[in-house]
Design the sequence.
């Protein structure tokens, strides 16, 4: 409301573009739009806007789904950007009558997290591609393959509440928002296709992202989508 009062011209331009014009071109559900919006706000650490989005998202997302968007983001965005967002999320949920902590939805343990994460990698990217990555990595750097399998995919992708399509769309949106991650973005465009998200869904996601990430990153990501 302060922005509307103090910068009415900008408020009208952005509100009209983001809340009216953009929506004329997308056919994805309101639930998916909120997942995309939460994801890009997390990636950009837009704390105030994120808190508002969490509150509004409760209309179409469960508290556990909202939390899982944040969980899914940590391995890609890093703890430095996400740590305070856990407290913001918890505060908004508590203010809206949600009892914390939420029930655990972890499906792995320390003994099988690496194995289960590797299974997901192979399913998303193809067993031959993952094996080639492992085979071509110097021994002194294999730890990063282990971290990917155990931490990124084992600890997070195996959790309940979100589908494979949700999780890969979140990852696509994170990488598009970050920029400078073109190699990873190419891999995850293909992974999105492999789990059932088609080109139209990714273009709709970019349409939702555009007001938040600007034209250069949007057009870079669009160029990568159009390679397929």
Sequence:
């Amino acid at each position: 409301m302060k922005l509307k009062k103090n910068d009415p011209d900008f408020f009208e331009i952005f509100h009209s573009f983001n809340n009216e014009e953009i929506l004329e071109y997308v056919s994805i559900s309101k639930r998916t739009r909120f997942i995309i919006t939460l994801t890009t706000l997390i990636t950009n650490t837009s704390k105030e806007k994120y808190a508002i989005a969490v509150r509004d998202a409760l209309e179409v997302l469960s508290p556990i789904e909202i939390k899982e968007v944040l969980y899914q983001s940590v391995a890609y965005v890093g703890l430095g950007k996400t740590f305070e967002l856990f407290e913001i999320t918890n505060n908004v949920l508590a203010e809206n009558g949600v009892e914390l902590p939420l029930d655990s939805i972890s499906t792995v343990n320390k003994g099988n997290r690496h194995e289960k994460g590797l299974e997901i990698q192979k399913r998303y990217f193809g067993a031959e591609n993952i094996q080639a990555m492992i085979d071509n990595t110097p021994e002194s750097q294999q730890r990063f393959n282990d971290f990917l399998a155990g931490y990124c995919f084992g600890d997070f992708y195996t959790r309940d509440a979100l589908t494979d399509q949700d999780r890969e769309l979140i990852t696509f949106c994170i990488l598009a928002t970050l920029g400078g991650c073109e190699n990873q973005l190419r891999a995850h465009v293909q992974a999105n296709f492999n789990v059932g998200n088609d080109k139209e869904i990714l273009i709709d996601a970019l349409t939702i992202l555009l007001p938040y990430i600007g034209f250069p990153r949007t057009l870079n990501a669009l160029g990568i989508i159009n390679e397929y």
